[in-house]
Design brief:
It is built from 12 helices and 9 strands. It is of the alpha/beta class and about 280 residues long. The longest helix is centred in the N-terminal third of the chain and has 15 residues. The radius of gyration is 19 Å and the shape is globular. The relative contact order is 0.13.
Length: about 280
């Protein structure tokens, strides 16, 4: 049983490959990457794989039984890129595709939802058995900027009291590996999120507790928040997008209490406290 993982040099893909090696022989794993030279330390078979090169994709998928299609990072190009992969998977005879979609993609107001829904539709029309892993937000989306938050002494946002059921990349990778290495998942849609939910105010309180500093959360109007991000050096398009995710947070799009992720992995998701502690240990 050959398992292929796209985007294997990315932060999520690398974790999936490493966790797969704990569950199955390295001979069964194929890392599909744009630049194989960047993955020579993986200890698995490497094949060139570029979503924008449809002419090479089917050959690279030859012999793959299960394919994990990790969504591309180029917003606005992903519908076409993913369609290229799905078409190539049909030609190559792939038997199952796992796709990393978006939490509650069919109801979410996040700007990312459209491309995920179009990919889900392409999978449904492809005739290839599939599993949808609708991933929620990564906790690293928040802890990754801790150094800046601490330096400013304030956590800014535009989420009001919206709840966030985030999980770490390692949590999501564990769920993907559980599905890749067990049977009975065809046609399933898994809404994946953390067991624990928090607001931005609670996130600020946790940072304050662990740093012994008073770091409040200040909620800004969305346009004011976008302007603040631009003043901090973020390009306008990204600032508008990121501020928009806070509006969707307020609407509940990042909240989910179904515990499907921890049910797949068989263990609780990483707590906010541990995620903050781990992040602080990396910046000290």
């Amino acid at each position: 049983m050959k398992i292929g993982v796209t985007g294997a040099t990315g932060q999520l893909g690398r974790l999936v490959v490493e966790k797969l090696k704990e569950k199955t022989s390295a001979e069964n794993i194929v890392a599909l990457v744009r630049s194989p030279q960047k993955a020579i330390d993986f200890g698995v078979e490497l094949r060139e794989f570029d979503y924008d090169k449809p002419e090479i994709l089917a050959k690279s998928l030859a012999g793959i039984d299960k394919l994990m299609l990790i969504s591309g990072s180029e917003i606005g190009k992903r519908t076409a890129q993913h369609a290229n992969v799905i078409e190539a998977a049909k030609d190559a005879g792939v038997k199952l595709i796992l796709y990393t979609s978006l939490l509650k993609a069919d109801t979410s107001t996040l700007g990312l939802a459209g491309e995920h829904l179009s990919t889900e539709d392409a999978l449904k029309k492809s005739g290839i058995p599939f599993v949808l892993l609708r991933n929620g937000w990564y906790t690293e989306n928040y802890t990754g900027s801790l150094a800046d938050v601490i330096a400013m002494g304030t956590l800014y946002g535009s989420s009001s009291d919206g709840k966030i059921s985030s999980a770490t990349r390692e949590d999501y990778a564990g769920a993907a590996v559980a599905v890749l290495t067990t049977e009975g998942h065809e046609g399933k849609v898994y809404e994946l999120a953390g067991d624990e939910s928090f607001t931005m105010s609670e996130f600020a309180a946790e940072i304050s507790r662990q740093t012994d500093k008073n770091i409040p959360y200040v909620n800004l109007p969305v346009e004011e928040y976008a302007q603040a991000l631009m003043k901090a050096g973020m390009p306008e398009a990204y600032a508008q997008f990121f501020a928009g995710t806070h509006v969707s947070t307020e609407k509940g799009d990042l909240f989910y209490a179904g515990h499907q992720l921890s049910k797949l992995t068989g263990k609780p998701t990483t707590s906010l406290s541990k995620a903050v502690s781990d992040a602080l240990s990396r910046i000290k």
